[in-house]
Description:
Elements (H helix, E strand, L loop, with lengths): L3 H7 L6 E6 L5 E6 L3 E6 L4 E7 L4 E6 L5 E6 L3 E6 L24 E5 L4 E6 L5 E6 L4 E5 L6 E5 L6 E5 L7 E6 L3 E6 L4 E7 L1 H4 L14 H5 L20 H10 L5 H8 L15 H6 L11 E6 L4 E6 L4 E6 L10 E5 L4 E7 L2 E9 L17 E6 L5 E3 L5 H7 L8 H5 L6 H4 L7 E2 L5 E2 L8 H22 L2 H14 L12
Antiparallel strand pairs: 1-2, 2-3, 3-4, 5-6, 6-7, 7-8, 9-10, 10-11, 11-12, 13-14, 14-15, 15-16, 17-18, 18-19, 19-20, 21-22, 22-23, 23-24, 25-26
Amino acid sequence: MLTGAIKDTLTDSLGPIRCAAVDSTGKYLATAGDSKVLKLYSLEGLRLINERELPKRPTSILLTQDAKNILVSDKFGDIFSYAFDFTPLPATQKRDDLSSHENPSGGTLVLGHASLLNAFLLTKDEKFIITADRDEHIRISWYPQGYTIEMFCLGHTKYVSAIHIPTFAPQDLVSGGGDPVLKIWDWMNGKVKREIEIWDVVERYIRVKASRRKRGEWAEEEGSGKGGKRKARGKKSKGKGKKKEETKEEEEGADDDEVGEAKAFGEDEGEGEGEAPATAGEASTSQEKKGEKVLVISKIATTSSKHIVFSAVGASALFVVDYTVDETASAEVRAFELGQPVLGFELAPQQEDQLWVTLDGNWSEAQESTSVDKPFIVALDISKSGELVKSTSQPPVVNTLSSKSSQSATSEQLKNLELYIDLVSMPKGHEPENDQDGEVALSKPEKQTKRTLGRLKNKQKVIDKEKELATLGDDDKEPAAKKARSDAGESPDVNMEEG
Length: 499
């Protein structure tokens, strides 16, 4: 049981811890969460080394191999680098020309994306940093000179939410997200080497569906990390009082991340206005609300037996596929049912044939009794052939983590975990789909703003014009072009050749 100073150090009253990372030597641990505080610990005795304020809510953390820098990505699509040794600055650092916001702890901007950054990693030699965002982009940049872009891996049609480089194939990159396939890339050349169909298998195991809520419900039910009410999405201050209201919010300590979230999610363009993601409490305790199955790959890893292991948000199974199968053959995706939604998994330290899988122990089917105790973490063994089986003897650390926590949580705190928020935040409000004739058909979401409708109308005009020009012959196009120049006041061409 946690007591005294260790308990005070590890717990955070301002919100849950969202991401954590351990360095390659196993000596240091870095954590961050809704409190927007980056903490660095020594794993020996869980001693707090230092802590510093982050500019925005973090989405991921990575420690460099030399244990000198901590990389943190945030909801604005930026990645900042922080030195292990930290001396508090005398004053708040001002925003530079490249950063999208100020950094109160002197972080160095590595790179930035125009949309929500979902995943990033460093190559083994740490010469390149690979990033993936919500706008289907995978970017390969130099590190630490992130402003120099080496290559793009383009081919995804939906958001990219997970990327991974196998240790046995450092020239390859495995990526996944909202597309029904995993892609294996030659990342240095930006070429797709292989695609693995996964949706038909994964769909059967998705237990948590993406649900939509009524306008304003987000502001009424969700509290910010500091106890205040969150602004309803899509609602922006207008008129002369806007600046005054923003100043008041800052003085009261209001959380300003929601503006960043709205921008990253495309709501400044009218997408998703008035929508709010289902909370963890809703999704994990009841399946009564209608919703749709959404594919969001949450993590990808590879084993020493050359198998890809991956998980999907809201799915109750872990999935395995052979990495070395012939490119011309279809790979078999195998699923291991765990009975509860998988929240994450890790390869066991120094034991790559074992996986530690975290589960949503508070989740239950609508007709199922909630009084039954469920595990929060289980250990699975993976064979050389890629078969997953539950370990006959669970490691002591797994048994400890799966036991009942000594720290109780209220229903409101469980709801604020937002374990399945990616099911709503990742997909965009409207996307073009290909019809049977191969032409672009504009989808019609349930709710569209005037701005969105105007864009769709203009896009349809362009499509109609292209079709009209395609049906015209060359003889018809030339007079039309001359007429356009005449209408614009241009003089007609004159033949100056002498007879």
